[in-house]
Specification:
Helices cover 35% and strands 15% of the residues. It is α+β, with helices and mostly antiparallel strands. Helix 1 crosses helix 2 and helix 8 packs across helix 9. Bound molecules: glycine and manganese (II) ion (2 copies).
Length: 430
């Protein structure tokens, strides 16, 4: 792992919270992600499944976590199964967790090799009545691929058809949505690495550079700061491309007079950061660019103030829509007739601002977190309004990551990342 050692107290706490939400006589199982093949003997770098990581800190393929808080045998209450390692395997496959290391990472005492799983699972299943299964029910999930977890679920349900089945997802959605202080520190760390990348490219961007060279500058800065790299595929979009919301080709040349939208965030220790800045390629905003930019910035600032305990996510979006409508009228992009003819399903502002304003942020960029209950302290949200004007070859989005506080305005984890027009221009023209 590139990241420094994490406090195992975080994972112990997370397991305790999960186990206290389980029904009596139940157990829960969490699997690692698969390692993805690209063909022949080549694989993509391993990315751990966020749930087993959240509950154990184990960042290794082919691991299984089993939680059974009511187990009669104390050693069966928390069990971790790992791919076997020894000195010989270490030479061929590199460093893998041994049993002592696994305990020191996770705080779990009962560590076994994977070869013991079937035997021990049979033993605990004889005692358990209910099994929690970890299905992906995220509101934005759109994955057809069968995961290691899915295969485990299929096999287990076929072998033990008389057990009761429960969903881990609703518990994890609730727990992961409210961050522990250790997690906020890790997200802050990821945001600070993103800041370094952004400051680096402010010195680099000028007419004639390409989007992929800018991507390379970010990548360089992220990797030298113990990040594995981008938390999500970066969007480096100059001119018209900024109006293509999921533009990820990053293959064009930046031209004098264009704006450049950068939706880029570093990961750190599996935690994401999610930033968007929009800068003038020339280092100087035109009058029109500045007007659009500052309209987006005002919406961002006002929207942020609404992220307080008690706010409902849906109602918040309605309020942000009103702010955006007023700015679009001011910019001459909408007129009164557009607003008179709108409906709540089709508000006029959607022509220029077609995506949501905020999502939970954390281990996943679009993190687990409740959206139908009032916001509470220590939830982390993005705030990311934008105005996209294809006819003017311009798209502006500004995005920060903020933590809801028990009182007052949220804490902006990106508060040090330059955003004001004057500061951006000064830094680009040093
Ligand atoms: N970078 C993905 C998002 O802003 O939601
Ligand atoms: Mn983003
Ligand atoms: Mn975002």
């Amino acid at each position: 792992m590139k990241y420094s050692t994490l406090p195992k107290s975080l994972f112990t706490k997370n397991r305790k919270k999960f186990m206290s939400a389980m029904k009596s006589k139940s157990l829960a199982v969490f699997n690692s992600n698969d390692v993805f093949s690209t063909g022949a003997d080549t694989t993509l770098p391993f990315h751990q499944h966020r749930n087993i990581f959240y509950l154990s800190g184990v960042d290794q393929e082919e691991s299984i976590l089993l939680l059974f808080p009511d187990a009669k045998n104390k050693a069966h209450r928390e069990m971790l199964f790992l791919k076997e390692t020894n000195d010989h395997i270490a030479v061929w496959e590199g460093e893998k967790l041994n049993k002592l290391q696994a305990t020191s990472v996770s705080g779990i005492e009962s560590i076994f090799w994977l070869t013991d799983f079937d035997r021990l699972f049979r033993e605990v299943m004889a005692e358990a009545e209910t099994v929690y299964l970890d299905t992906n029910e995220h509101y934005r999930q759109a994955v057809e691929m069968e995961s290691r977890e899915d295969r485990f679920i299929k096999k287990t349900k076929a072998k033990y058809p008389a057990h009761h089945w429960e969903r881990s997802y609703p518990i994890l959605e609730r727990l992961r949505g409210v961050k522990e202080l250790e997690e906020i520190d890790l997200i802050q760390h990821a945001c600070s690495i993103t800041e370094k990348g952004f400051r680096r490219i402010l010195d680099f961007v000028k007419p004639g550079v390409t989007e992929y060279e800018i991507e390379a500058e970010f990548s360089h800065e992220f990797l030298r700061n113990r990040s594995r790299g981008f938390a999500y595929t970066p969007i480096i979009a100059s001119g018209y491309s900024a109006c293509v919301l999921h533009y990820i080709e990053n293959n064009k040349t930046c031209h004098d007079g264009d704006m450049l939208l950068l939706d880029v965030g570093a990961e750190y220790a599996n935690y994401a950061s999610d930033m968007t800045r929009t800068i003038p390629v020339s280092g100087k905003f035109t009058v029109r660019q500045k007007a659009v930019y500052q309209a987006v910035q005002r919406v961002k600032d006002e929207a942020t103030k609404l992220l307080v305990p008690g706010t409902m996510w849906d109602a918040y979006h309605v309020e942000v829509g009103k702010m955006m409508t007023s700015e679009l009228l001011g910019l001459g992009l909408l007129d009164k007739a557009d607003v008179q003819n709108e409906s709540s399903e089709h508000p006029a502002y959607k022509k220029y601002f077609m995506h949501g304003t905020s999502h939970h942020m954390g281990l996943d960029t679009h993190d687990y977190g409740p959206l139908k209950t009032p916001m509470v302290a220590n939830m982390v949200f993005t705030v990311e309004p934008g105005i996209y004007i294809p006819e003017e070859n311009m798209g502006v989005r500004l995005e920060d990551d903020v933590v809801i506080q028990s009182k007052g305005a949220p804490l902006n984890l990106m508060g040090n990342i330059p955003i004001d027009v004057e500061e951006i221009e000064d830094l680009m023209n040093r």
